[in-house]
């Protein structure tokens, strides 16, 4: 073959056709593999987003259910999970920071805590996309029967009495330790001091 043969349009067309056929064969071979990889990546991403939403809903529902009794273990766990569950929601995390500050302020002001709890719940509902059906007063409406309030008060009184009893038992031991420490080294007697 000479140079003129390679420059002929028929040879160039045949060469390009062969290259296109090879590329098509490679694409045909790679397409199912690429499609499977893309599908798996999308499935994992969807599962991850679904799990994150489920976690957010669980935290939100637990706080909603426990808003009448913030000191319950489940509510405390849910409150402490906010930063992780709503890590991409600045409004929720800011509202949680404000509530946290009011919970750790002495003296505890119930009206401030209540207002900040409502704001937190509203922000969480907005992040979850369910706020359009809930009003701010919906977050403040709680049902807490007298019997549950009395049970909580009895547990609180029992805990206080137990702590008082335990502290009372620790005090004599502390007094005995203090008395024993004051005996050593022994103080010199006046008679001992006179003999020296």
UniProtKB/TrEMBL annotation:
Residues 21-169 form the DUF6680 domain. It comes from the Bacteria. InterPro entries: DUF6680. This is DUF6680 domain-containing protein. It comes from Sphingomonas yabuuchiae. Residues 169-196 are annotated as: Disordered.
């Amino acid at each position: 073959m000479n140079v003129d043969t390679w420059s002929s349009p028929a040879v160039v067309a045949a060469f390009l056709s062969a290259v296109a056929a090879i590329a098509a064969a490679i694409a045909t071979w790679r397409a199912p593999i690429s499609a499977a990889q893309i599908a798996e990546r999308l499935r994992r991403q969807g599962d991850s987003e679904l799990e994150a939403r489920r976690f957010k809903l669980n935290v939100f529902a637990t706080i909603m259910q426990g808003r009448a009794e913030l000191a319950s273990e489940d509510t405390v766990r849910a409150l402490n999970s906010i930063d992780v569950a709503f890590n991409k929601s600045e409004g929720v995390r800011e509202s949680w920071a404000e509530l946290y500050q009011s919970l750790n302020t002495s003296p505890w002001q119930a009206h401030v805590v209540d207002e900040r709890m409502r704001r937190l719940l509203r922000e969480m509902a907005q992040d979850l996309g369910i706020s359009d059906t809930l009003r701010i007063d919906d977050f403040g409406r709680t049902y807490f029967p007298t019997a549950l309030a009395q049970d909580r008060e009895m547990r609180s009184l029992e805990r206080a009495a137990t702590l008082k009893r335990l502290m009372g038992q620790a005090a004599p031991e502390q007094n005995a330790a203090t008395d024993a420490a004051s005996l050593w080294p022994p103080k010199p007697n006046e008679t001992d001091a006179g003999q020296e």
